[in-house]
Design brief:
A 5-stranded mixed beta sheet has the order 1-2-8-5-3. The chain folds into 2 domains: about 100 residues, no CATH class; about 400 residues, Cytochrome P450 (Cytochrome p450), CATH 1.10.630. Strand 1 and strand 2 form a beta hairpin. The protein starts with a helix and ends with a strand. The protein is α+β, with helices and mostly antiparallel strands and about 525 residues long. Helix 13 packs antiparallel against helix 15, helix 20 packs antiparallel against helix 21 and helix 21 crosses helix 25. It is about 55% helix and about 10% strand. It is globular. Bound molecules: protoporphyrin IX containing FE. The site of protoporphyrin IX containing FE (HEM) has 26 residues, from helix 8, helix 18, helix 19 and helix 25.
Length: about 525
Protein backbone atom coordinates (compact mmCIF):
# COMPACT_ATOMS: atom_id res chain seq x y z
CA UNK A 1 0.00 0.00 0.00
CA UNK A 2 2.75 2.41 1.09
CA UNK A 3 4.82 1.40 -1.89
CA UNK A 4 1.98 2.23 -4.28
CA UNK A 5 1.55 5.64 -2.64
CA UNK A 6 5.22 6.29 -3.29
CA UNK A 7 5.43 4.85 -6.80
CA UNK A 8 2.35 6.65 -8.16
CA UNK A 9 3.72 10.22 -8.04
CA UNK A 10 7.07 9.06 -9.47
CA UNK A 11 5.24 7.33 -12.32
CA UNK A 12 3.13 10.45 -12.90
CA UNK A 13 6.32 12.51 -13.00
CA UNK A 14 7.88 10.26 -15.60
CA UNK A 15 4.71 10.51 -17.70
CA UNK A 16 5.14 14.26 -17.96
CA UNK A 17 8.55 14.91 -19.43
CA UNK A 18 8.44 18.54 -18.47
CA UNK A 19 7.82 17.72 -14.82
CA UNK A 20 10.55 15.13 -14.95
CA UNK A 21 12.99 17.68 -16.30
CA UNK A 22 11.96 20.23 -13.70
CA UNK A 23 12.29 17.57 -10.97
CA UNK A 24 15.80 16.66 -12.09
CA UNK A 25 16.80 20.30 -12.25
CA UNK A 26 15.49 20.94 -8.73
CA UNK A 27 17.38 17.89 -7.47
CA UNK A 28 20.59 19.05 -9.14
CA UNK A 29 20.16 22.58 -7.77
CA UNK A 30 19.51 21.20 -4.29
CA UNK A 31 22.63 19.02 -4.53
CA UNK A 32 24.83 21.85 -5.78
CA UNK A 33 23.49 24.28 -3.18
CA UNK A 34 24.07 21.80 -0.37
CA UNK A 35 27.62 21.10 -1.59
CA UNK A 36 28.26 24.83 -1.86
CA UNK A 37 26.86 25.69 1.57
CA UNK A 38 28.80 22.96 3.33
CA UNK A 39 32.08 23.48 1.46
CA UNK A 40 34.98 24.56 3.68
CA UNK A 41 36.21 26.81 0.86
CA UNK A 42 33.13 28.98 1.42
CA UNK A 43 33.70 29.47 5.13
CA UNK A 44 37.30 30.50 4.36
CA UNK A 45 36.10 32.87 1.63
CA UNK A 46 38.36 31.42 -1.07
CA UNK A 47 37.70 33.60 -4.11
CA UNK A 48 36.58 32.28 -7.47
CA UNK A 49 33.94 32.51 -10.20
CA UNK A 50 30.46 32.07 -8.76
CA UNK A 51 29.36 29.28 -11.14
CA UNK A 52 32.58 27.34 -10.69
CA UNK A 53 31.91 27.08 -6.96
CA UNK A 54 28.57 25.43 -7.72
CA UNK A 55 29.16 23.06 -10.57
CA UNK A 56 31.81 21.29 -12.63
CA UNK A 57 29.82 22.38 -15.68
CA UNK A 58 31.61 25.75 -15.45
CA UNK A 59 35.01 24.17 -16.02
CA UNK A 60 33.65 21.83 -18.66
CA UNK A 61 32.14 24.75 -20.58
CA UNK A 62 35.56 26.42 -20.72
CA UNK A 63 37.22 23.18 -21.81
CA UNK A 64 34.68 22.87 -24.60
CA UNK A 65 35.48 26.43 -25.70
CA UNK A 66 39.08 25.15 -25.90
CA UNK A 67 40.42 28.09 -23.94
CA UNK A 68 40.62 26.71 -20.38
CA UNK A 69 44.42 27.07 -20.17
CA UNK A 70 44.20 30.83 -20.84
CA UNK A 71 40.94 31.28 -18.89
CA UNK A 72 42.65 29.85 -15.82
CA UNK A 73 45.43 32.43 -16.21
CA UNK A 74 42.80 35.18 -16.34
CA UNK A 75 41.04 33.78 -13.27
CA UNK A 76 44.30 33.93 -11.33
CA UNK A 77 44.94 37.49 -12.49
CA UNK A 78 41.49 38.43 -11.23
CA UNK A 79 41.28 36.42 -7.99
CA UNK A 80 44.90 35.86 -6.91
CA UNK A 81 47.10 32.76 -6.47
CA UNK A 82 44.42 30.51 -4.95
CA UNK A 83 41.14 30.24 -6.85
CA UNK A 84 38.09 28.09 -6.12
CA UNK A 85 37.37 26.70 -9.61
CA UNK A 86 35.10 23.68 -9.08
CA UNK A 87 32.92 22.45 -6.18
CA UNK A 88 35.74 20.37 -4.71
CA UNK A 89 38.86 21.92 -6.27
CA UNK A 90 41.08 24.95 -5.90
CA UNK A 91 43.57 26.03 -8.52
CA UNK A 92 46.97 27.24 -7.36
CA UNK A 93 49.26 29.62 -9.23
CA UNK A 94 52.44 30.07 -7.25
CA UNK A 95 55.75 28.41 -8.21
CA UNK A 96 56.84 28.44 -4.55
CA UNK A 97 53.95 26.09 -3.68
CA UNK A 98 54.95 23.58 -6.36
CA UNK A 99 56.85 21.37 -3.97
CA UNK A 100 54.07 21.41 -1.38
CA UNK A 101 51.67 19.69 -3.79
CA UNK A 102 54.01 17.77 -6.06
CA UNK A 103 56.58 16.49 -3.57
CA UNK A 104 58.09 13.04 -3.24
CA UNK A 105 56.80 10.27 -1.03
CA UNK A 106 58.55 10.26 2.35
CA UNK A 107 58.41 7.97 5.38
CA UNK A 108 54.93 9.29 6.22
CA UNK A 109 53.74 8.06 2.81
CA UNK A 110 49.94 8.00 2.70
CA UNK A 111 49.62 10.67 5.37
CA UNK A 112 51.31 13.45 3.43
CA UNK A 113 51.59 12.38 -0.22
CA UNK A 114 49.25 14.05 -2.73
CA UNK A 115 47.90 11.29 -4.97
CA UNK A 116 46.64 11.95 -8.47
CA UNK A 117 42.98 12.89 -8.15
CA UNK A 118 40.12 10.56 -9.15
CA UNK A 119 39.65 12.53 -12.40
CA UNK A 120 42.67 10.63 -13.82
CA UNK A 121 40.34 7.65 -14.08
CA UNK A 122 39.11 9.27 -17.33
CA UNK A 123 42.21 8.06 -19.14
CA UNK A 124 42.15 4.52 -17.77
CA UNK A 125 40.80 2.22 -20.42
CA UNK A 126 41.92 -1.25 -19.49
CA UNK A 127 42.95 -3.28 -16.46
CA UNK A 128 46.69 -2.84 -16.94
CA UNK A 129 49.29 -0.38 -15.77
CA UNK A 130 48.85 2.91 -17.59
CA UNK A 131 51.57 5.20 -16.33
CA UNK A 132 50.01 8.62 -16.77
CA UNK A 133 46.63 7.69 -15.32
CA UNK A 134 47.63 5.38 -12.46
CA UNK A 135 46.47 6.95 -9.20
CA UNK A 136 48.17 4.56 -6.82
CA UNK A 137 51.60 6.04 -5.99
CA UNK A 138 53.10 2.66 -5.06
CA UNK A 139 52.23 1.13 -8.41
CA UNK A 140 53.46 4.24 -10.23
CA UNK A 141 56.74 3.96 -8.34
CA UNK A 142 57.06 0.36 -9.41
CA UNK A 143 56.36 1.41 -13.01
CA UNK A 144 59.06 4.04 -12.79
CA UNK A 145 61.46 1.48 -11.35
CA UNK A 146 60.90 -0.86 -14.31
CA UNK A 147 60.76 1.77 -17.02
CA UNK A 148 62.78 4.86 -16.16
CA UNK A 149 66.14 3.40 -17.24
CA UNK A 150 65.17 3.08 -20.86
CA UNK A 151 63.70 6.58 -20.94
CA UNK A 152 66.86 8.00 -19.35
CA UNK A 153 69.37 10.01 -21.43
CA UNK A 154 71.70 7.00 -21.43
CA UNK A 155 68.92 4.61 -22.39
CA UNK A 156 67.86 6.75 -25.34
CA UNK A 157 71.45 7.30 -26.35
CA UNK A 158 71.48 3.61 -27.31
CA UNK A 159 68.72 4.28 -29.82
CA UNK A 160 70.34 7.28 -31.54
CA UNK A 161 70.57 5.38 -34.81
CA UNK A 162 66.77 5.15 -34.83
CA UNK A 163 66.41 8.86 -34.14
CA UNK A 164 68.66 9.53 -37.12
CA UNK A 165 66.70 7.22 -39.42
CA UNK A 166 63.49 9.08 -38.52
CA UNK A 167 65.24 12.40 -39.15
CA UNK A 168 66.48 11.24 -42.58
CA UNK A 169 62.95 10.34 -43.59
CA UNK A 170 61.66 13.66 -42.27
CA UNK A 171 64.12 15.60 -44.44
CA UNK A 172 63.42 13.43 -47.47
CA UNK A 173 59.67 13.85 -47.00
CA UNK A 174 59.80 17.62 -46.46
CA UNK A 175 62.04 18.01 -49.47
CA UNK A 176 59.85 15.91 -51.73
CA UNK A 177 56.44 17.19 -50.62
CA UNK A 178 57.23 20.85 -49.89
CA UNK A 179 60.66 22.31 -50.68
CA UNK A 180 60.60 21.04 -54.26
CA UNK A 181 56.95 21.76 -54.93
CA UNK A 182 56.75 25.08 -53.05
CA UNK A 183 53.53 23.90 -51.35
CA UNK A 184 53.07 25.34 -47.84
CA UNK A 185 53.89 22.84 -45.13
CA UNK A 186 51.29 22.19 -42.42
CA UNK A 187 53.72 22.14 -39.54
CA UNK A 188 51.63 20.33 -36.94
CA UNK A 189 50.98 17.49 -39.38
CA UNK A 190 54.68 17.09 -40.05
CA UNK A 191 55.66 17.18 -36.40
CA UNK A 192 53.09 14.43 -35.88
CA UNK A 193 54.39 12.36 -38.83
CA UNK A 194 57.86 12.64 -37.35
CA UNK A 195 56.55 11.58 -33.93
CA UNK A 196 54.84 8.51 -35.41
CA UNK A 197 57.92 7.53 -37.43
CA UNK A 198 60.16 8.01 -34.43
CA UNK A 199 57.92 5.95 -32.15
CA UNK A 200 57.91 3.12 -34.72
CA UNK A 201 61.70 3.37 -34.93
CA UNK A 202 62.46 3.29 -31.22
CA UNK A 203 59.71 0.79 -30.43
CA UNK A 204 60.38 -1.82 -33.09
CA UNK A 205 63.26 -0.62 -35.25
CA UNK A 206 61.13 -0.09 -38.33
CA UNK A 207 59.98 2.70 -40.59
CA UNK A 208 56.26 3.42 -40.41
CA UNK A 209 56.56 5.65 -43.50
CA UNK A 210 54.50 8.69 -42.46
CA UNK A 211 57.10 11.30 -43.47
CA UNK A 212 57.92 9.53 -46.71
CA UNK A 213 54.24 9.33 -47.62
CA UNK A 214 53.68 12.91 -46.43
CA UNK A 215 50.27 11.94 -45.06
CA UNK A 216 48.50 10.53 -42.04
CA UNK A 217 48.39 6.90 -43.18
CA UNK A 218 45.03 5.31 -42.29
CA UNK A 219 44.15 8.27 -40.05
CA UNK A 220 46.52 7.03 -37.36
CA UNK A 221 47.39 10.44 -35.91
CA UNK A 222 43.76 11.50 -36.18
CA UNK A 223 42.68 8.48 -34.10
CA UNK A 224 45.25 9.23 -31.40
CA UNK A 225 44.03 12.82 -31.29
CA UNK A 226 40.42 11.63 -30.88
CA UNK A 227 41.44 9.51 -27.88
CA UNK A 228 43.38 12.32 -26.23
CA UNK A 229 40.60 14.84 -26.77
CA UNK A 230 37.97 12.37 -25.49
CA UNK A 231 39.95 12.04 -22.25
CA UNK A 232 40.10 15.85 -22.06
CA UNK A 233 36.33 16.15 -22.44
CA UNK A 234 35.66 13.52 -19.76
CA UNK A 235 38.19 14.70 -17.17
CA UNK A 236 36.28 17.72 -15.78
CA UNK A 237 33.00 15.77 -15.42
CA UNK A 238 33.16 13.46 -12.39
CA UNK A 239 29.55 12.28 -12.84
CA UNK A 240 30.32 10.91 -16.31
CA UNK A 241 33.16 8.94 -14.81
CA UNK A 242 30.87 7.42 -12.26
CA UNK A 243 28.49 6.17 -14.94
CA UNK A 244 31.05 4.90 -17.46
CA UNK A 245 33.45 2.05 -16.86
CA UNK A 246 36.88 1.34 -18.28
CA UNK A 247 35.29 -1.28 -20.53
CA UNK A 248 32.85 1.25 -21.97
CA UNK A 249 35.60 3.77 -22.59
CA UNK A 250 37.83 1.17 -24.16
CA UNK A 251 35.10 -0.05 -26.49
CA UNK A 252 34.35 3.48 -27.57
CA UNK A 253 38.01 4.06 -28.40
CA UNK A 254 38.89 0.53 -29.48
CA UNK A 255 39.00 1.05 -33.20
CA UNK A 256 41.33 4.05 -32.87
CA UNK A 257 43.63 2.15 -30.52
CA UNK A 258 43.86 -0.92 -32.74
CA UNK A 259 44.42 1.25 -35.80
CA UNK A 260 47.26 2.98 -33.95
CA UNK A 261 49.04 -0.25 -33.02
CA UNK A 262 48.51 -1.75 -36.48
CA UNK A 263 50.10 1.20 -38.25
CA UNK A 264 52.93 1.76 -35.82
CA UNK A 265 53.96 -1.84 -35.40
CA UNK A 266 53.17 -2.73 -39.02
CA UNK A 267 50.95 -5.58 -37.85
CA UNK A 268 47.95 -5.13 -40.18
CA UNK A 269 45.78 -7.77 -38.53
CA UNK A 270 46.61 -7.00 -34.90
CA UNK A 271 43.85 -7.37 -32.29
CA UNK A 272 44.16 -7.67 -28.52
CA UNK A 273 42.78 -11.22 -28.66
CA UNK A 274 45.03 -12.58 -31.35
CA UNK A 275 48.03 -10.25 -31.39
CA UNK A 276 50.24 -11.59 -28.61
CA UNK A 277 52.19 -13.97 -30.83
CA UNK A 278 52.95 -11.14 -33.29
CA UNK A 279 54.03 -8.88 -30.45
CA UNK A 280 56.28 -11.59 -29.05
CA UNK A 281 57.91 -12.20 -32.42
CA UNK A 282 58.51 -8.48 -32.91
CA UNK A 283 59.99 -7.93 -29.48
CA UNK A 284 62.25 -10.99 -29.79
CA UNK A 285 63.53 -9.65 -33.10
CA UNK A 286 64.35 -6.28 -31.48
CA UNK A 287 65.44 -6.94 -27.90
CA UNK A 288 67.09 -3.53 -27.52
CA UNK A 289 64.01 -1.53 -28.57
CA UNK A 290 61.10 -0.29 -26.50
CA UNK A 291 58.52 -2.93 -27.38
CA UNK A 292 60.72 -5.55 -25.71
CA UNK A 293 61.20 -3.27 -22.69
CA UNK A 294 57.46 -2.65 -22.45
CA UNK A 295 56.77 -6.37 -22.63
CA UNK A 296 59.28 -7.12 -19.87
CA UNK A 297 58.06 -4.28 -17.67
CA UNK A 298 54.41 -5.36 -17.89
CA UNK A 299 55.36 -9.00 -17.12
CA UNK A 300 57.13 -7.85 -13.97
CA UNK A 301 54.09 -5.86 -12.91
CA UNK A 302 51.53 -8.51 -13.87
CA UNK A 303 50.85 -9.72 -10.30
CA UNK A 304 49.56 -6.23 -9.45
CA UNK A 305 47.21 -6.24 -12.43
CA UNK A 306 45.70 -9.74 -12.37
CA UNK A 307 42.67 -8.70 -14.45
CA UNK A 308 44.73 -7.39 -17.35
CA UNK A 309 46.49 -9.30 -20.10
CA UNK A 310 49.84 -9.22 -21.86
CA UNK A 311 48.73 -7.79 -25.19
CA UNK A 312 46.88 -4.90 -23.57
CA UNK A 313 49.55 -4.45 -20.90
CA UNK A 314 52.30 -4.16 -23.52
CA UNK A 315 50.45 -1.95 -25.98
CA UNK A 316 49.09 0.47 -23.37
CA UNK A 317 52.71 1.48 -22.79
CA UNK A 318 52.87 2.37 -26.48
CA UNK A 319 49.78 4.48 -25.97
CA UNK A 320 51.43 6.29 -23.05
CA UNK A 321 54.44 6.91 -25.26
CA UNK A 322 52.18 8.19 -28.04
CA UNK A 323 50.29 10.46 -25.62
CA UNK A 324 53.57 12.26 -24.92
CA UNK A 325 55.39 11.96 -28.24
CA UNK A 326 52.40 12.65 -30.49
CA UNK A 327 49.98 14.36 -28.11
CA UNK A 328 52.40 16.88 -26.62
CA UNK A 329 55.79 17.20 -28.34
CA UNK A 330 54.46 18.34 -31.76
CA UNK A 331 52.73 21.38 -30.27
CA UNK A 332 55.85 22.48 -28.37
CA UNK A 333 57.79 21.90 -31.58
CA UNK A 334 55.39 24.09 -33.56
CA UNK A 335 55.90 26.89 -31.02
CA UNK A 336 59.66 26.53 -31.42
CA UNK A 337 59.45 26.76 -35.22
CA UNK A 338 57.19 29.79 -34.91
CA UNK A 339 59.71 31.50 -32.61
CA UNK A 340 62.72 30.57 -34.71
CA UNK A 341 61.08 31.98 -37.81
CA UNK A 342 60.59 35.22 -35.89
CA UNK A 343 64.15 35.23 -34.45
CA UNK A 344 66.67 34.71 -37.27
CA UNK A 345 69.49 35.73 -34.90
CA UNK A 346 68.78 32.61 -32.79
CA UNK A 347 68.72 30.42 -35.90
CA UNK A 348 72.10 31.84 -36.88
CA UNK A 349 73.58 30.94 -33.48
CA UNK A 350 72.13 27.43 -33.68
CA UNK A 351 73.70 26.99 -37.12
CA UNK A 352 77.03 28.12 -35.71
CA UNK A 353 76.75 25.56 -32.91
CA UNK A 354 75.90 22.80 -35.34
CA UNK A 355 78.83 23.78 -37.54
CA UNK A 356 81.15 22.80 -34.67
CA UNK A 357 79.95 19.19 -34.92
CA UNK A 358 79.89 18.72 -38.65
CA UNK A 359 76.35 20.14 -38.99
CA UNK A 360 74.86 17.16 -37.23
CA UNK A 361 73.47 16.99 -33.72
CA UNK A 362 75.03 14.06 -31.90
CA UNK A 363 73.82 12.97 -28.50
CA UNK A 364 77.37 12.50 -27.27
CA UNK A 365 78.04 16.19 -27.94
CA UNK A 366 74.96 17.06 -25.94
CA UNK A 367 75.15 14.71 -22.97
CA UNK A 368 77.35 15.87 -20.16
CA UNK A 369 79.16 12.62 -19.50
CA UNK A 370 82.87 12.07 -19.03
CA UNK A 371 83.36 15.80 -18.43
CA UNK A 372 82.27 16.61 -21.96
CA UNK A 373 80.75 20.00 -22.64
CA UNK A 374 77.35 20.50 -24.18
CA UNK A 375 78.09 21.86 -27.65
CA UNK A 376 74.53 23.10 -28.27
CA UNK A 377 73.68 25.45 -25.38
CA UNK A 378 71.62 27.86 -27.53
CA UNK A 379 69.70 25.10 -29.25
CA UNK A 380 68.99 23.42 -25.92
CA UNK A 381 67.88 26.74 -24.40
CA UNK A 382 65.68 27.49 -27.40
CA UNK A 383 63.93 24.14 -26.93
CA UNK A 384 63.50 24.80 -23.20
CA UNK A 385 62.14 28.27 -23.87
CA UNK A 386 59.58 26.87 -26.34
CA UNK A 387 58.35 24.22 -23.91
CA UNK A 388 58.13 26.89 -21.22
CA UNK A 389 56.05 29.19 -23.41
CA UNK A 390 53.87 26.42 -24.84
CA UNK A 391 53.81 23.73 -22.17
CA UNK A 392 51.38 21.70 -24.24
CA UNK A 393 50.50 19.25 -21.42
CA UNK A 394 48.57 22.10 -19.90
CA UNK A 395 45.73 20.31 -18.12
CA UNK A 396 45.56 21.11 -14.39
CA UNK A 397 47.61 18.45 -12.57
CA UNK A 398 44.92 17.70 -10.03
CA UNK A 399 45.88 16.08 -6.73
CA UNK A 400 43.84 14.82 -3.79
CA UNK A 401 44.75 16.47 -0.48
CA UNK A 402 46.16 13.75 1.82
CA UNK A 403 44.99 13.02 5.39
CA UNK A 404 47.48 15.61 6.69
CA UNK A 405 45.47 18.37 4.92
CA UNK A 406 47.42 21.29 3.49
CA UNK A 407 48.04 24.94 4.02
CA UNK A 408 48.06 27.12 0.90
CA UNK A 409 48.78 30.70 1.86
CA UNK A 410 46.12 31.65 4.44
CA UNK A 411 43.81 28.78 3.44
CA UNK A 412 43.56 25.37 5.01
CA UNK A 413 42.48 22.74 2.50
CA UNK A 414 40.97 19.69 4.22
CA UNK A 415 41.76 16.08 3.22
CA UNK A 416 39.84 14.66 0.26
CA UNK A 417 39.47 17.93 -1.65
CA UNK A 418 41.46 18.53 -4.83
CA UNK A 419 44.20 21.06 -5.51
CA UNK A 420 45.76 21.64 -8.90
CA UNK A 421 48.38 23.68 -10.67
CA UNK A 422 48.55 24.02 -14.44
CA UNK A 423 51.64 24.78 -16.42
CA UNK A 424 50.51 27.91 -18.22
CA UNK A 425 49.92 30.12 -15.22
CA UNK A 426 52.98 28.79 -13.40
CA UNK A 427 55.31 29.19 -16.39
CA UNK A 428 54.08 32.72 -16.99
CA UNK A 429 54.60 33.85 -13.39
CA UNK A 430 56.29 37.27 -13.60
CA UNK A 431 57.48 37.12 -10.00
CA UNK A 432 59.53 34.00 -10.73
CA UNK A 433 60.54 34.35 -14.38
CA UNK A 434 60.78 38.16 -14.62
CA UNK A 435 58.78 40.90 -16.36
CA UNK A 436 59.79 39.58 -19.81
CA UNK A 437 58.16 36.25 -18.98
CA UNK A 438 56.11 36.12 -22.19
CA UNK A 439 59.10 36.73 -24.46
CA UNK A 440 61.08 34.05 -26.24
CA UNK A 441 64.54 34.59 -24.79
CA UNK A 442 66.67 31.41 -24.90
CA UNK A 443 69.55 33.18 -23.18
CA UNK A 444 67.54 33.36 -19.95
CA UNK A 445 68.53 29.70 -19.49
CA UNK A 446 72.26 30.39 -19.63
CA UNK A 447 74.72 31.44 -16.93
CA UNK A 448 74.28 31.48 -13.17
CA UNK A 449 71.51 32.66 -10.87
CA UNK A 450 72.54 35.12 -8.13
CA UNK A 451 71.45 32.70 -5.38
CA UNK A 452 73.50 29.70 -4.25
CA UNK A 453 72.64 26.04 -3.84
CA UNK A 454 72.24 24.70 -0.28
CA UNK A 455 75.80 23.35 -0.33
CA UNK A 456 77.20 26.78 -1.30
CA UNK A 457 77.77 25.79 -4.94
CA UNK A 458 76.80 28.18 -7.72
CA UNK A 459 73.23 27.81 -8.90
CA UNK A 460 72.74 27.73 -12.65
CA UNK A 461 69.87 29.59 -14.27
CA UNK A 462 68.70 26.28 -15.67
CA UNK A 463 68.46 24.85 -12.17
CA UNK A 464 66.55 27.91 -10.95
CA UNK A 465 64.10 28.00 -13.85
CA UNK A 466 63.41 24.27 -13.77
CA UNK A 467 62.65 24.50 -10.05
CA UNK A 468 59.81 26.90 -10.84
CA UNK A 469 58.23 25.75 -14.06
CA UNK A 470 55.63 23.03 -14.39
CA UNK A 471 56.14 22.01 -18.02
CA UNK A 472 56.96 18.41 -17.13
CA UNK A 473 55.11 18.26 -13.80
CA UNK A 474 57.19 17.81 -10.65
CA UNK A 475 58.15 15.48 -7.81
CA UNK A 476 57.33 11.79 -7.66
CA UNK A 477 55.06 11.93 -10.73
CA UNK A 478 57.29 14.07 -12.93
CA UNK A 479 57.20 13.26 -16.67
CA UNK A 480 59.13 10.11 -17.41
CA UNK A 481 59.44 11.06 -21.10
CA UNK A 482 61.10 14.46 -20.65
CA UNK A 483 64.47 13.30 -22.02
CA UNK A 484 62.76 11.73 -24.98
CA UNK A 485 60.80 14.95 -25.58
CA UNK A 486 64.01 16.99 -25.46
CA UNK A 487 65.83 14.60 -27.77
CA UNK A 488 62.98 14.59 -30.27
CA UNK A 489 62.92 18.36 -30.42
CA UNK A 490 66.70 18.70 -30.57
CA UNK A 491 67.02 16.28 -33.47
CA UNK A 492 64.02 17.69 -35.35
CA UNK A 493 65.08 21.32 -34.93
CA UNK A 494 68.74 20.70 -35.76
CA UNK A 495 67.79 18.96 -39.00
CA UNK A 496 65.22 21.57 -39.96
CA UNK A 497 67.45 24.63 -39.49
CA UNK A 498 70.37 22.86 -41.11
CA UNK A 499 68.44 21.92 -44.23
CA UNK A 500 65.83 24.64 -44.74
CA UNK A 501 65.04 28.32 -44.51
CA UNK A 502 61.62 28.68 -42.96
CA UNK A 503 59.01 31.33 -43.61
CA UNK A 504 55.80 31.11 -41.60
CA UNK A 505 52.86 32.09 -43.79
CA UNK A 506 50.06 31.20 -41.37
CA UNK A 507 50.32 31.48 -37.59
CA UNK A 508 49.10 28.70 -35.28
CA UNK A 509 46.00 28.93 -33.12
CA UNK A 510 45.87 27.43 -29.61
CA UNK A 511 43.20 24.77 -29.07
CA UNK A 512 42.84 23.27 -25.60
CA UNK A 513 41.05 20.08 -24.69
CA UNK A 514 43.50 18.12 -22.58
CA UNK A 515 46.64 19.36 -24.28
CA UNK A 516 47.09 22.77 -25.82
CA UNK A 517 47.37 22.01 -29.51
CA UNK A 518 48.98 24.52 -31.88
CA UNK A 519 46.81 24.11 -34.95
CA UNK A 520 46.93 25.51 -38.44
CA UNK A 521 50.49 26.81 -38.80
CA UNK A 522 51.80 26.78 -42.37
CA UNK A 523 55.35 27.49 -43.49
CA UNK A 524 57.25 27.72 -46.74
CA UNK A 525 60.46 25.74 -46.78
CA UNK A 526 63.39 26.57 -49.03
CA UNK A 527 66.27 24.13 -49.28
CA UNK A 528 69.54 25.74 -48.14
CA UNK A 529 72.44 25.39 -50.53
CA UNK A 530 75.23 26.01 -48.07
CA UNK A 531 75.09 23.13 -45.63
C1 LIG B 1 57.25 18.31 -24.40
C2 LIG B 1 56.71 17.15 -24.21
C3 LIG B 1 56.09 16.70 -22.91
C4 LIG B 1 55.52 17.43 -21.92
C5 LIG B 1 55.34 18.94 -21.86
C6 LIG B 1 55.08 16.49 -20.90
C7 LIG B 1 54.46 16.87 -19.72
C8 LIG B 1 54.11 15.99 -18.72
C9 LIG B 1 53.51 16.37 -17.49
C10 LIG B 1 53.13 17.79 -17.12
C11 LIG B 1 53.33 15.26 -16.76
C12 LIG B 1 52.76 15.18 -15.36
C13 LIG B 1 51.36 14.69 -15.39
C14 LIG B 1 50.74 14.68 -14.03
O1 LIG B 1 51.36 15.02 -13.04
O2 LIG B 1 49.60 14.34 -13.99
C15 LIG B 1 53.80 14.15 -17.53
C16 LIG B 1 53.76 12.86 -17.12
C17 LIG B 1 54.13 11.81 -17.91
N1 LIG B 1 54.67 11.88 -19.17
FE1 LIG B 1 55.12 13.55 -20.19
N2 LIG B 1 55.37 15.23 -21.30
C18 LIG B 1 56.00 15.30 -22.52
C19 LIG B 1 56.46 14.27 -23.27
C20 LIG B 1 56.37 12.96 -22.91
C21 LIG B 1 56.85 11.87 -23.71
C22 LIG B 1 57.57 11.98 -25.05
C23 LIG B 1 56.54 10.75 -23.05
C24 LIG B 1 56.87 9.37 -23.54
C25 LIG B 1 57.27 8.44 -22.79
C26 LIG B 1 55.87 11.12 -21.80
C27 LIG B 1 55.40 10.24 -20.84
C28 LIG B 1 54.87 10.61 -19.63
C29 LIG B 1 54.45 9.67 -18.61
C30 LIG B 1 54.48 8.15 -18.73
C31 LIG B 1 53.99 10.42 -17.53
C32 LIG B 1 53.41 9.90 -16.22
C33 LIG B 1 54.48 9.85 -15.14
C34 LIG B 1 53.88 9.56 -13.80
O3 LIG B 1 52.70 9.78 -13.62
O4 LIG B 1 54.59 9.12 -12.90
N3 LIG B 1 55.79 12.46 -21.77
N4 LIG B 1 54.28 14.62 -18.73
Amino acid sequence: MHLITLVQPVYALIQHKLYLLAGLLILALAYWTHAYLTCPFRTQKIPGPFLGKFTNAYRWYHVMRHTWHRDLMDLHKKYGPIVWIAPDEVSVSDPTLRNVIYGFQNHKKDFTFFKKSPSYEAGSINQDFSFIFEQDPEKARLGKYHMSHFYSERGLFNLEENFDKAVEELIEGLDKHHARTGAPCKMVDWTEFFALDLVAQITADQSAGFCLAGKDINDTAYGARVIIRAVGVLTPMPWVLSVTSRAIRQNFLLRFLINLYRNLLLLPTFTFDTGMEDLKALKEKNPKHLLAKFYNAQSRMREHYPHGNQAEGTTIQIFNLIAGALGVVPHCQVRLIQELAAHPEVVQKIREELATTNNTLNFEDFLRYNNRQNKYPILESAVREAVRLTPAASFPLSRKVPPSGCQLHQYNIPPGYNVSMASYQVNYDEGYFGPDVAEFRPERWLGDHPTEMLDGEKRSMKNYLEAGWLTFGAGGRVCIGRNLAMFMMLKFTAALVREFDIQVVKQPVEYYTLMTEMLGMEALLTRRCAV
